[in-house]
Amino acid sequence: MGQVGMEGRTLDAVLFDAGNTLIYMPKPPEEILRDLCAELGHHVGAEEARQAYARSERFYTRHRMEISDEGEFWLRFHGEALLELGIEDSTGEKAAYLSHGFGRAGVWQAYPEAAEVCRHLRTLGIRLAVVSNGPASVANLISQAGLMPFFETIVASQTLGVEKPDPRIFLEALARLGVDPGRALFVGDLYEVDVRGALGAGLHAVLVDRNGRSGRVDCPVIGNLAELIPLLELGAF
Fold first, then answer.
1. Domain 13-24+108-233 class?
2. How many CA atoms are closer than 13 Å to the CA of 175, on its beta-carbon side?
3. Which of 99, 144, 154, 226 is the one with CA 20 to 30 A from 185?
4. pLDDT (tens digit, 9 = 90+) per residue, 39-57?
C-alpha cells in the first residue's frame, strides 16, 4: 500500500497519459517531416510540410482504431503526407523511411521532472502505469525516454480496441495492477479525454496544464508533474 497525505488517505496507483504528460516532442513534427524529406532528397517548404503533416493527422483521427496492424497503419499515415507533397512512393519505401525517422531516439523525450516524480512515487510504494490513446509503439517511446523501469504496464488504445474517455481502458490498466478505481489517480493533459474519462471510471484525476490555458475545471490542476507531489502530501485524494 502507498499511504500518502496528512489526512491518512491512500492511493495504491497513479496512472499517467503519455504524450504531452510524461513525454513530448521538442521539435515540431512538421520540422521533423521536412528534415526527413530532405534526407530523401526532397526539399519542401515550411507551409507545405505543415499541410502535409496536418493531412496525416486527419488520417490518424479517422482511422486510428480501424487498422490493427501497426506497421501498415504508420505506412499509410506517412503515405498521406507524401501524397500531399506530391512525392511519388509506389513501393512504400519512402513512407517506411518516414516511419522509422519519427521513431528515432530523441524525437520524443521525457519532461525534465518526469523521472524524478516517478521515482518518488515508487519510493512511496505507489504502483505506476501508462494509459495512452495511441499505438503499441508508445511503449517504445516511453523506453527511449528512459521511463520504462518505473511502469508495471502500458495500455495503448490501438492495441486494446477502446480509447479514452471510455472507462474500459482505465479499468484494464487497473485490472492488470489489481487496484480498485477509488484508490487510483489518473494524470493527463486533456480535460475531456483524460479527466472526464478517469472520473467516469471511478478514479481520481489531475489535469496537467503546462501553458495555463485550462480555465476553471472541476479537478486539481498542476503546471508540471513536480506539482503532483505536494498534492499527494496534502492528502488531496
1. alpha beta
2. 8
3. 144
4. 999 999 999 999 999 999 9
